[in-house]
């Protein structure tokens, strides 16, 4: 078992050949099928991993009721990711998907790999479903 840290996340991403970057705040992110996916470490000891997928599809404020309905249905029918509506500072609307895991007691590279794949794959699936909703 290892303690979750950014080097472990980068090693898991490298092992899969996934392209990623580290932003000015030290957070790891990558572009997957046009969706920006962040890998945040949260919690008192940064022991929680939250994979947050910001969908590429942008909506207007008029779409919010339809997006609430979409997210409620998604969250009822799908295990991952948790989906929610976010109005941005410029007034546009996006849907965000999140997969979170608590690794307080440590984790193996295999466990990290599995949750990374889950967060990325289900985040991209959410993006595809939103693309169908947008068209």
Quick tags:
Yope Regulator, Chain: A; single chain; 135 residues; elongated; alpha+beta
CATH topology: Yope Regulator, Chain: A
Domain module tally: 1
From the spread of the alpha carbons, the general shape counts as: elongated
Query: What is the number of strand segments?
Result: 6
The span between the termini is: 45 Å
The biggest sheet amounts to: 6 strands, antiparallel
Total number of helical segments?
A: 3
The gyration radius over C-alpha positions equals 15 Å
Strand order of the largest sheet: 1-2-3-4-6-5
Fraction in helix: 25-40%
Which consecutive residue ranges, at least 5 long each, have pLDDT under 50?
none
How would you sum up this structure in a few lines?
The protein has 135 residues and is an alpha+beta fold. The chain has helices at 6-16, 64-77, 109-134, and strands at residues 21-22, 28-32, 35-42, 48-54, 82-87, 93-102.
Can you lay out the helices and strands and say which pair or pack?
Elements: H1 6-16, E1 21-22, E2 28-32, E3 35-42, E4 48-54, H2 64-77, E5 82-87, E6 93-102, H3 109-134
